[in-house]
Amino acid sequence: GKICAITAAMSRGTGLETFRKLFPARFFDVGIAEEHAVTFAAGLAAGGMRPVAAIYSTFIQRAYDNILHDVALQSLPVMLCIDRAGLSVGDGATHHGIFDVSFLSSIPGMTIYTPATYDALEMTFRAALALGSPAAVRYPNAVESDEVKKKFYPDGAPVSPGVRADFTPADTPDVVIAVHGRMAAEAVAVSREVNRAGYRCGLILCEYIKPYTLLADEIQGLIGKPPKLFVTLEEEIRSGGFGENLCDTLERRGFFDKTDKLIIATDDSFAVPAAGQTVYEAAGVDAAAVVRQILRRL
User: Fold this and answer.
1) Mean pLDDT over all residues of the chain?
2) CA gap 135, 289 in Å, rounded
3) Shortest CA distance to 117 belongs to which of 89, 148, 86?
4) What is the pLDDT of residues 202-255, one digit of tens each?
5) How far, in Å, CA of 261 to CA of 293, rounded?
6) What is the four-CA torsion angle of 95, 99, 100, 103, rounded to 10 degrees?
7) What is the pLDDT of residues 132-173, one digit of tens each?
8) CB-based burial of residue 192 (10 Å sphere; 0-12 exposed, 13-18 middle, 19+ buried)?
9) Of 84, 115, 155, 217, which sits with the fewest C-beta atoms within 10 Å of its C-beta?
């Protein structure tokens, strides 16, 4: 009975209505005050509760200082559910959830989970609660991809957060693409096209991204021989994001002595679509653009 849920006036949007009805004494709607929501969560955690704050990515930006000072500095077990992670198809630039990876990656002791399926979301949710330190679980406003499920979860639901490859270390392909979250579905389409162009392409799905040292350990364990090209693919902002952090960690270990690298992300842009463009095309991370970049590099 220690788990409590916090929303900033978005009980319906974040799917907390059922919890509100079942556990009214442990449900808190603090109104449109994300900064307060996070500091309040820190207070509850300091008092022995296990608070879960469900906030849209674009709105949690307002609480950066609160996450940093009130939660992370004291290493409190606050769990952030970062809803609407990634590019926003429906609401456009004001609702893009593309900055949280970058600013959360800069916070010491923060763990970031990035599930790509419903089962993985439940599994990472449980892992984050059990962690006992600051954690974020980020997920998109999207349905899961059957192709991603078939490719990475042939044996059913995952048990603990990790990294999954569609190849074996003994059979490392020419091109390896590391991806997380919703972009896994794009990566499957990309790998098909790269294979068609005559290069063997493999995928690595990351169920968490931070700590990056742990992520780099797992990825190096999956790669037998150095690939020709290592690609990171994300819809989030490039600066300080998944690709930059992961590649920096691998670089310091000499991983790129024999391998070329390519970071594909939303690059210094608010990804505002022009007429007839999707948000993915506006960000330059749609499958066709990604395939072009990879083939150009090869």
Assistant:
1) 97
2) 33
3) 148
4) 999 999 999 999 999 999 999 999 999 999 999 999 999 999 999 999 999 999
5) 12
6) -150
7) 999 999 999 999 999 999 999 999 999 999 999 999 999 999
8) middle
9) 155
Give which of 266, 270, 239, 281 is closest to 95, Cα–Cα.
Answer: 270
pLDDT at 89 over 90: yes
Asked if residue 1 has pLDDT above 80, the reply is no
**pLDDT score at 266:** 98
DSSP symbols for the chain: --EEEEESS-TTTTT-HHHHHH-GGGEEE--S-HHHHHHHHHHHHHTT-EEEEEEEHHHHGGGHHHIIIIIITTT---EEEEES-B--TTT-GGG-B-SHHHHHHTSTT-EEE---SHHHHHHHHHHHHHH-S-EEEE--SSPPPHHHHHHH-TTSS-SS--EEESS-GGG--SEEEEEETTHHHHHHHHHHHHHHTT--EEEEEESEEESHHHHHHHHHHH-SS--SEEEEEEEEESTTSHHHHHHHHHHTTTGGGS-EEEEEEE-S---PPPTT--HHHHHT-SHHHHHHHHHHH-
pLDDT for residue 34: 98
Report the alpha-carbon distance of residue 241 to residue 234 in Å, rounded: 9
Two tokens, residue 182: 């919703």
Q: Tell me the pairing of strands 3-7 and 27-29.
A: parallel
User: What gap in Å lies between CA 279 and CA 297, rounded to an integer?
Assistant: 24
Q: Which of 142, 67, 70 is nearest to 105 (CA)?
A: 67
